[in-house]
Amino acid sequence: LRNSFAPKAGKQNLRHQYYLQPQASSSKVAILGAAGGIGQPLALLIKMSPLVSALHLYDIANVKGVAADLSHCNTPAQVLDFTGTSELANSLKGVDVVVIPAGVPRKPGMTRDDLFNINANIVKTLVEAVADNCPDAFIHIISNPVNSTVPIAVEVLKRKGVYDPKKVFGVTTLDVVRANTFVAQKKNLRLIDVDVPVVGGHAGITILPLLSKTKPSVSFTDEEVEELTVRIQNAGTEVVEAKAGAGSATLSMAYAAARFVESSLRALDGDTDVYECAYVQSELTELPFFASRVKIGKKGIEAVISSDLQGLTEYEEKALEALKPELKASIEKGVAFAQKQT
Ligand code: NAD
Ligand code: LMR
């Protein structure tokens, strides 16, 4: 498995030279919500990718300055800015990957579902434009509540007659990034070696790290499993509380989203060894959407990996059953919202 949002190892050159490699840089990426807390650092990280030829930055305000600033970095991607709904369509023309971090973040005391009323409409409107202007693009949805915004996006695409289940991803990479970090710290492992699949959804108990499937194989006491699982499930809240009203995770999220974009670009570029966890349409359980590892290829998801759900521990089996009612309700809420719209 390779999930390397990092320069390939083995070269003695300075890291920054990687970003200047005269490699084919042919993909176009759009960020919708590009002037926000996630959008800005994400734009910087994507601007550093040698696989990107154009980076389209869209927001309802403040995006001109972000684009002017970024455009001075001497990396190949051409940066273009688009402000407001009148420029939304143009921001999407010819784009291969659309990343959506548009929407409001949590404040202390809120759940992700408390964001539904505002973010559901934002995601619906943006995905309608994606359907009209770049229906073949990979769509990465970051806006919360992901458990509901992905079903909303899917309903919009279905209504527009352009839904491809292989190309719609709820971004749960941050859960994997956190699980890898916390497990490596707890077990004194090299960070680069650790890979923990995280399944289910992206809110509270629906986030289920499968610690028994950690690579390399590690043994945990029952107490360690409980402590790590709860910390991974509450890691978003940990950041929301530390930021004390100034928003939720932005930098770690940008890092995680950039890794997912880079993986998608490698897949589009013909790499046949790309695996990531994502919240997608799924038949792994009785729920229509479920996060798991997926294999990504040129045309999107090539396989949903079922083996991670086999041979679970009793703790994981119970946690899997316990998350289903909440995840089901969030999916149904998203679908009902989208179907109610004209
Ligand atoms: P932010 O408020 O800093 O930025 C949001 C940006 O979206 C702003 O620039 C705003 O102008 C823009 N925006 C609002 N309405 C828009 C519209 N209709 N079209 C385009 N842009 C619009 O928030 P943030 O910290 O960047 O978080 C954004 C979202 O990402 C939140 O919903 C948050 O909960 C979510 N999030 C998800 C994960 C995850 O793991 N999936 C992690 C962190 C945050
Ligand atoms: C996260 O996991 O950090 C995000 O979903 C943001 C949040 O509200 O916790």
TrEMBL record:
Entry keyword annotation includes Calcium: no
Domain Lactate/malate dehydrogenase C-terminal: from-to ranges: 172-337
Top enzyme category: oxidoreductase
GO cellular component: mitochondrion
Catalysed conversion reaction: (S)-malate + NAD(+) = oxaloacetate + NADH + H(+)
An example Gene Ontology biological process: malate metabolic process
Superkingdom of the source species: Eukaryota
EC number in record: 1.1.1.37
UniProt GO MF annotations: L-malate dehydrogenase (NAD+) activity
Residue ranges of domain Lactate/malate dehydrogenase N-terminal in the record: 28-170
This protein's UniProt keywords: NAD, Oxidoreductase, Tricarboxylic acid cycle
UniProt keyword Oxidoreductase present: yes
Family: Belongs to the LDH/MDH superfamily. MDH type 1 family.
Subunit record text: Homodimer.
Protein name stated in the entry: malate dehydrogenase
Native species: Vitis rotundifolia
Residues shown, of full length: 69 to 410 of 413
